[in-house]
Amino acid sequence: KLPGAPAWAAIFFFMLVVLGIDSEFCIVESFVTGMVDNWPDQLRPHRGKFTMAMCVLLFLLGVPMVTHGGAYIFQLMDYYSASGMCLLWVCFFQTISISWIFGADKFIDCVHQMMGVRPNRFWYFCWVIFAPATMVFIFVFYIVQYVPAKYGPYVYPDWA
Q1: Per-residue exposure over 8-41, b if at least 16 CB sit within 10 Å of its own CB, e if not
Q2: Is 87 in contact with 135 (CB distance < 8 Å)?
Q3: In this structure, is residue 61 part of a structural domain?
Q4: Residue 102 sits in the same domain as residue 145
Q5: Which pLDDT does position 63 carry in this prediction?
Q6: Which of 62, 43, 40 is nearest to 51 (CA)?
Q7: Does the pLDDT value for residue 83 go beyond 90?
Q8: Are 64 and 73 in contact, with CB atoms under 8 Å apart?
Q9: Are residues 62 and 88 in the same domain?
Q10: pTM of the model
Q11: 95 plus 62 within the same structural domain
């Protein structure tokens, strides 16, 4: 038996609460900082109120997660919006927009201006050909291996 087990359990769960609060603080603060930096004249004088409003809004968005159907909503959000597929789409379109639309040569010039070192042709190949092709391959593999979302015995409909 662990000596002082109730004390260790209390410390452990206190650590979990502090870790959760810290994680949420980082997420909310990065979002609020981005918004305030985007509209400094309107939001900087009211930063505290804006932060409180965002916390209340995010709390209200989380309330459905603690209802009877919350596990189903959470599973749906976890499977589709927090999966690697969404991140893959964002990375794919960022890579295409930077390397093909903005132009890889211009991007190399920007990197040279910022870093003082010009990236070699390997990076050009990676940005223009290798990274998009790899992401398309992963997407096709995902489509072939696709299994609809389910929670326990419940299978979500196709439109979910």
Answers
A1: eeeeeeeeeeeeeeeeeeeeeeeebeebbeeeee
A2: no
A3: yes
A4: yes
A5: 93
A6: 43
A7: no
A8: yes
A9: no
A10: 0.61
A11: no
pLDDT of 77: 84
Q: Give phi and psi for 148, each to the nearest 5.
A: -60, 150
23 labelled as ligand-binding?
yes
DSSP state of 102: I
Range of the domain at 17: 5-66
Q: Considering the domain boundaries, does residue 107 fall inside one? A: yes
* Adjacent-strand bridge partners of 155: 150
Predicted confidence band of residue 157 (pLDDT cuts 50, 70, 90) = confident
Cα(160)–Cα(134) distance, integer angstroms: 28
Which of the four pLDDT bands, split at 50, 70 and 90, describes residue 2?
confident
* 19 annotated as belonging to a binding site for a ligand: yes
Pair of tokens at residue 110 = 């920007």
Q: Which of the residue ranges 48-52, 65-69, 151-155 would you say has the lowest mean pLDDT? A: 151-155
Host H or E run for residue 150: strand 150-151
Rg of the chain, C-alpha, whole Å: 23
Provide the pLDDT confidence category of residue 158 given band limits of 50, 70 and 90: confident
The answer, yes or no, to whether residue 6 has pLDDT greater than 80, is yes
Is 74 inside a domain boundary?
Answer: no
What helix, strand, coil percent values describe the chain, rounded to 5? 80, 0, 20
